[in-house]
Design a protein that fits this description.
Helices cover 39% and strands 13% of the residues. It is an alpha/beta fold. The protein has a domain of 264 residues: Glycosidases (TIM Barrel). The chain is globular, with a radius of gyration of 22 Å.
Length: 390
């Protein structure tokens, strides 16, 4: 009798615990981990990052798989990144997926699309800037290395799209990732797009000669279409291989949020029409990089305005605000901004970026106390295919 009673009590406790977890509203609680700083360069760093993520009840880690035309995984196409630590056979993304899944955390592979190098010459003979210099994006003055973000590939070159799709397909075929996250899926600015191949294609399409003016509306529309075609092609590859994988992008919300989409910098300056991507269902999750200083009244007002803009231009897909959590002097404000995302009806928030620094525990404590007090599952997306059972 005592044994039966104990068994019943144990069962009730298990059911109660399960109900308590299921009662927590599903949310996207993402943290981005790039490879410029410690966080995923060794097995120990990845273990520590996962431990930190669990400590503040977050549930998605966006590990950087491709930084600047280099690979933090076993790539069939690009050179192994030089700053990976330890054994030459160590596979950061492979290890991260395995360990994260063991801890109930999703992994989205973060891929920098067009940005492929910083300054100078890439030291890898097989780097894309060395094997295909004709693919590099150029200003109207013919410069390819004057962007503040380094060197970019030109979206107006079909072979660039084909190559990038192969990279995404390679990751999908080798790793059990839960998502693909695009970054730098845009032009560096309004005066870019002048590779010989891109200009020739544009002129052929519109029966023109010479270089188009950066302010030419037809030229702007054409460049916008080139970036959108890349997004379409990547979505097609995801749907072909693993239609259950979440497709997301880090996007531009610079400055204040205009009432008209066509006046945003994303649309007019970088030719990144993410509103269209949401409207046409190309993206599952849009993550505008809403980096606004919480200690400045003007920036904070812009931050809130962009939350409303994200919702307005979501079209039934998921919009998440990405918050800058790297400034020690503004950590409390950054935590507040994460909470404000939820308060304004967004289904989660994303932190940029985790690093194993002295105040990481302070950040985790703030997130757990103010934003994510309990664990929560990642929301299911009703338009996605069901993930196959393992």
């Amino acid at each position: 009798m005592k044994f039966r009673l104990a068994a019943i009590m144990a069962m009730l406790l298990a059911v109660t615990a399960g109900c308590a977890y299921s009662a927590v509203k599903p949310e996207f609680r993402g943290v981005q981990v790039h490879t410029w700083i410690p966080g995923m360069l060794s097995a120990q760093e990845i273990d520590d990052t996962i431990k930190w993520t669990k400590s503040c009840n977050m549930n998605v880690i966006m590990f950087q798989a491709r930084k600047v035309g280099d690979a933090y995984y076993n790539s069939a196409y690009e050179p192994r990144a030089a700053n990976i630590k330890g054994d030459k056979d160590f596979d950061p993304i492979g290890y991260a997926v395995k360990k994260s899944h063991e801890n109930g955390i999703q992994v989205w592979a973060w891929v920098n699309v067009y940005r492929v190098w910083g300054g100078g010459k890439a030291p890898y003979p097989n780097h894309i800037t060395n094997t295909h210099p004709e693919w590099l994006n150029k200003t109207i003055d013919g410069k390819s290395n004057s962007s503040g973000d380094g060197q970019f590939l030109d979206p107006g070159i079909p072979e660039v799209r084909d190559y990038t799709v192969k990279i995404i397909g390679d990751i999908l075929s080798k790793y059990d990732v839960d998502g693909i996250m695009l970054d730098f899926v845009r032009y560096p600015g309004r005066d870019w797009g002048y590779s010989d191949i891109a200009v020739s294609r544009f002129n052929k399409a519109y029966n023109r000669t010479g270089k188009p003016d950066p302010k030419d509306l037809t030229w702007a529309r054409w460049r916008r279409e080139q970036v959108t075609q890349m997004v379409r092609d990547i979505k097609k590859e995801i749907d072909r291989q693993k239609p259950y994988v979440t497709f997301s992008a880090a996007t531009i919300p610079w400055g204040p949020c205009p009432t008209s989409w066509n006046k945003t910098d994303a649309y007019t300056a970088t030719f990144q029409d993410w509103r269209l991507w949401m409207e046409q269902g190309l993206l599952d999750v849009n993550m505008p990089m809403n980096y606004k200083n919480p200690t400045r009244e003007r920036d904070q007002a812009w931050y809130i305005d962009w939350l409303e803009g994200m919702k307005k231009w979501a079209y039934g897909r998921v919009a998440l605000s990405t918050v800058m959590v790297m400034s020690d002097s503004a950590l409390d404000g950054a935590v507040d901004q994460m909470k404000q995302s939820l308060d304004h009806g967004l289904p989660g928030a994303v932190a940029f970026a985790f690093s194993q620094r002295a105040d990481a525990d302070k950040l985790a404590a703030g997130l757990k106390a103010k934003v994510f007090p309990e664990p929560a599952p990642v929301p299911l997306l009703p338009w996605k295919a069901k993930r196959p059972a393992k």
